[in-house]
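Sorry, I am new here, but would you mind making up a protein's amino acid sequence and the tokens describing how it folds?
***
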Amino acid sequence: MRSEVADQVENLLATALVESTTLTGLRALRLDGNPIGDDGAYAIARCPQAARLSSLFIDDDEISAEARQALRDSPYLRDARLVIV
């Protein structure tokens, strides 16, 4: 069972990531070892700043099938190579 603290950390990471001005300039993003959970996956999928990514690698087994599909269906990640493990 996941702890409330782990969920709060995921939410903070997701918020910091999508609100960062640095994301706009990134071409590749590796999030292995960084738990972003469903909230983070949905935030990236809805983030216009992610449109410049050519590759996105996420290693987080806590991401649900629905959140993974949201990443695959994102109009902002259409041109990115997605690896979600």
